[in-house]
């Protein structure tokens, strides 16, 4: 597509594909415009497609890109993934447990919780 010089070294700039966008997502590229629309779901979407299709991550990236280029939408795929997650009894339970652990950790860290706990001990 083009070239860019960084610190006196020339690099090829590729045409951005879904695989690139997913890789940027994994690197924490939340400022990238497409990622802002989908949050951190793109890397998960790649893995989800790999799981349901039975392929590696490169093939899943290719399939997602072809789906979008053929007129499909990322929203459609993300919605299917979200539904699969919300319908999973295992994942719901795991998320509930993680939420409870996070709440407990937050309560332990707040000064109010420490004061309340100290007051209970002193009574």
Task: Give a verbal description of the structure.
The protein is mainly α and 123 residues long. The protein folds into two domains: 2-73, no CATH class; 88-123. Helix content is 72%, strand content 8%. It is built from seven helices and two strands, in the order E-E-H-H-H-H-H-H-H. Strands 1-2 form a two-stranded antiparallel ribbon. Helix 1 crosses helix 3 and helix 3 crosses helix 4. The mean pLDDT is 75.
Give the biggest beta sheet.
2 strands, antiparallel
Assign the structural class, choosing from mainly alpha, mainly beta, alpha/beta, alpha+beta, or little secondary structure: mainly alpha
> What portion of the residues fall into strands of 2 or more residues?
5-15%
Integer count of domains:
2
Helix content: over 70%
Widest sheet: strand ordering: 1-2
Number of helices: 7
Low-confidence stretches: none
Would you list the SSEs in sequence order as H and E?
Answer: EEHHHHHHH
Distance between the termini: 72 Å
Q: From the alpha carbons, calculate the radius of gyration and give it in angstroms.
A: 22 Å
Overall geometric form:
flat
What do the pLDDT scores average to?
75
- By DSSP, the count of extended strands is 2
């Amino acid at each position: 597509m083009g070239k860019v010089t960084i610190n006196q070294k020339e690099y090829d700039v590729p045409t951005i594909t879904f695989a690139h966008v997913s890789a940027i997502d994994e690197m924490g590229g939340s400022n990238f415009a497409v990622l802002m629309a989908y949050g951190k779901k793109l890397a998960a979407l790649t893995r989800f497609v790999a799981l349901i299709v039975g392929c590696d991550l490169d093939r899943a990236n290719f399939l997602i890109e072809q789906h979008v280029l053929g007129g499909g939408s990322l929203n459609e795929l993300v919605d299917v993934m979200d539904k699969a997650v919300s319908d999973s009894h295992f994942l719901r339970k795991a998320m509930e447990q993680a939420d409870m652990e996070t709440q407990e950790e937050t309560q332990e860290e707040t000064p109010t919780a420490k004061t309340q706990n100290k007051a209970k001990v002193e009574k």
